[in-house]
Write a structure and sequence with these properties.
With about 130 residues, the protein is α+β, with helices and mostly antiparallel strands. About 30% of the residues lie in helices and about 20% in strands.
Length: about 130
């Protein structure tokens, strides 16, 4: 059942957030860090959104108009976590955002976008 909660996106806004499949355990660790007093965190994803030349401006518009968008993490076809995203940047432009983000003292902050990586993947977009 829905109560007036289904809406058509305006023609110029086809994106309402992001969804990614992720079964790794980092999210619980981040929750613990945020519960220890941090207000902000840097998270990243190794893929740019589909049609990123269209999607990223729409996500930026959501941040501008409503202050955030949600990034949903899916495991076994079920959304299990969501992150409230208040800013984003492509990895190749991280140096432009880094000084502003550094002032907020976020958990998991690095000064260089190349440091956001695992053994197999590296950040393509940061939040």
């Amino acid at each position: 059942m829905t109560e007036k909660q289904i809406q058509k996106f305006p023609d110029n806004q086809k994106v309402g957030g992001l969804i990614a499949r992720d079964t790794t355990a980092w999210k619980e660790e981040l929750i613990e860090e945020l519960e220890d007093g941090y207000k902000y965190a840097i998270i990243w994803w190794h893929r740019k959104p589909n049609k990123n030349w269209e999607t990223i401006p729409q996500l930026e518009n959501l941040i501008k108009t409503q202050g955030y968008f949600y990034f949903y993490y899916v495991e076994r076809n079920q959304a299990t976590y969501r992150a409230k995203i208040i800013d984003l940047v492509l990895a190749e432009h991280y140096e432009n955002k880094m000084p502003v983000w550094k002032e907020k003292d976020p958990v998991w902050f690095n000064e260089n976008s190349n440091e956001y990586k695992t053994e197999k993947i590296r950040a393509a977009i940061l939040f």
